[in-house]
Amino acid sequence: MEPSEEFLFRHKGFYFHPGHVTPDITTPEYIDSLEDFEIRDSDVFVVTYPKSGTVWTQNILSLIYHEGHRDGTENIKIIDRVPWLEYNIHNMDYVHCPSLRLFATHLPYYLVPRDLKNRRAKVIYVARNPKDVAVSYFHFSSISVLLETIPDFNVFLERFLAGKVLAGSWLDHIRGWSTHKDDFNILFLTYEEMKKNLRGAVLKICKFLGKQLNEKELDMVVEKATFDQIKTDPRANYDLWQIASTVIKGHFLHKGTVGDWKNTMTVAQNERFDHVFKEKMKDLSSTFNWATNDDI
């Protein structure tokens, strides 16, 4: 079953939003132009596959760097504090934005700006158990008018495993970034370790970024970066985009739990997923070592 061209377009082996709801959100020409996008040494990129903790990590970065976000004095939405590289939703002038620039992206390693491989700018890659990704993605597609709604989870699962969804194959995405990690100045995190020890994850991010926070600042970042806080913060939650009424028919953030796939997948679906996962990821176990049947 091929994805509908109304909801996705394929360019250089990757699936993008076509912008039928938000015109010109991106184009093949714009994607190609990113190869020459000028990277600054101070730039920080959050790289994820969809539904792997993108909004969460965007907010953590913003809380670390922007005191106004921490203390509630800065009324700037997350989409503007940490904008999307490939989807310039608010038509921001990235070239003339002052440093420090924070970006989010779902791009595969081979479509990011060429200069990102100079290993000076920083990349934070967040991965999540692909079974939870698939289930979260499935639920999100039912509320987002940007995505095709597929009522049958079994049909969706086959499409997900075949990479015929937004951002293509989860397996290819994570394999590409992990096998080319030496090309980038990169920190790998998992959604599960962030859920298990948020303070430890924030400290790890701060160390990677060379960013010093005092204990009070660190406590405030951790407090405001919890899932419940982000879900109710009008500056942090995509539910409250200025275009949300045309894009989201429910809540952007779902449960945010670890292991929720067990409430959706049948035994047969789980076995099918394991077969594909183990075949394609067997040589990457040292990088991403969670068991797909168990919580981290």
Automatic annotation (TrEMBL):
<dbReference type="Pfam" id="PF00685">
    <property type="entry name" value="Sulfotransfer_1"/>
</dbReference>
<keyword id="KW-0963">Cytoplasm</keyword>
<dbReference type="InterPro" id="IPR027417">
    <property type="entry name" value="P-loop_NTPase"/>
</dbReference>
<dbReference type="GO" id="GO:0005737">
    <property type="term" value="C:cytoplasm"/>
</dbReference>
<protein>
    <recommendedName>
        <fullName>Sulfotransferase</fullName>
        <ecNumber>2.8.2.-</ecNumber>
    </recommendedName>
</protein>
<keyword id="KW-0808">Transferase</keyword>
<dbReference type="GO" id="GO:0008146">
    <property type="term" value="F:sulfotransferase activity"/>
</dbReference>
<feature type="domain" description="Sulfotransferase">
    <location>
        <begin position="41"/>
        <end position="284"/>
    </location>
</feature>
<dbReference type="InterPro" id="IPR000863">
    <property type="entry name" value="Sulfotransferase_dom"/>
</dbReference>
<comment type="similarity">
    <text>Belongs to the sulfotransferase 1 family.</text>
</comment>
